[in-house]
Amino acid sequence: xxxxxxxxxxxxxxxxxxxxxxxxxxxxxxxxxxxxxxxxxxxxxxxxxxxxxxxxxxxxxxxxxxxxxxxxxxxxxxxxxxxxxxxxxxxxxxxxxxxxxxxxxxxxxxxxxxxxxxxxxxxxxxxxxxxxxxxxxxxxxxxxxxxxxxxxxxxxxxxxxxxxxxxxxxxxxxxxxxxxxxxxxxxxxxxxxxxxxxxxxxxxxxxxxxxxxxxxxxxxxxxxxxxxxxxxxxxxxxxxxxxxxxxxxxxxxxxxxxxxxxxxxxxxxxxxxxxxxxxxxxxxxxxxxxxxxxxxxxxxxxxxxxxxxxxxxxxxxxxxxxxxxxxxxxxxxxxxxxxxxxxxxxxxxxxxxxxxxxxxxxxxxxxxxxxxxxxxxxxxxxxxxxxxxxxxxxxxxxxxxxxxx
Length: 405
Hints:
Blueprint: E1 4-8, H1 13-25, E2 29-36, H2 45-52, E3 57-62, H3 64-77, H4 94-108, E4 112-114, H5 123-134, E5 140-141, H6 154-163, E6 179-182, E7 187-190, E8 220-227, E9 230-234, E10 237-238, H7 241-254, E11 259-265, E12 271-277, H8 279-295, H9 298-317, H10 323-335, E13 341-348, E14 351-358, H11 367-370, H12 383-400
Parallel strand pairs: 1-2, 1-4, 2-3, 4-5
Antiparallel strand pairs: 6-7, 7-12, 8-9, 8-13, 9-10, 11-12, 13-14
């Protein structure tokens, strides 16, 4: 049997400790995988840290374009929002990381994969459901759930790191008190003072966005060009998917767009408070709905809205690679065929406002019919009489029989 374990490795305290713990507990050679999905140069120090612990096979890969084009954009075609607020920034990253981790395990002959998620969170579910969907025989080692794992706090992990001379950067005092996760779609904050849902978040916590009250006093208008539901250009400049999201993050963040403070229902059963910065995603969602408003058939739009909460829950709960998500995605992608055109939005003091939307080829908006002025006979208002009487028939029959609702 292979004595290799493929570890999803960030280079931080937890996964560095796990790297050594897995080496000793399983007498195994560790293969590390670090995914760049928007962190950029921040991931490179993982290489030297892994090398210092004797890791010989180190994978650090830029998956940013794949992340946006194959995961983020398909999700936004559905306008997916979990529980009315959360734009799923962490959730949508996990299946991609799991997919590549499974591939690396197969490539290197590892007998198992491992991750640093705790037994309380959603990420353990997302990683492992994805892994089993891709390789039903894969073995998963989750140290936080292993009986041999006795490190129950970050202080325990730091003591272990010092004892085993593990190269990590950790501040016992003065550092960020939050557990943070960042990718090109968002940055999340949990733990610390946020564990009290009645306490306000610390203004100094936010990293990507200025406070709305400190944003520029002059609004910014930008134009987004859509093709089949995806943004392909900003202000006339064509960009790759990752470049689009990166630019929207910069513009939205500078104008205080995209802050959220949420208490959400985790899949494992508990409620959890988290804060999120998703500036580009917030702009993208608003603009995409505006583009759909003039290009989608009414019933198709309503059907999408009915299916969206189910789709969002599938992503949140870790079922990206499930058959039901794939079927829903096929329907959603088909609906996006006519979603072509341009949307102008205004960014101002934390708000995103739509100021215009046009589609030369696919707009279903007919100003000749919708006008309050003379429509030249294109719409016969008398037709509404029969329409209303037919729809009122069951209500009238019920009223005649004394039924009250």
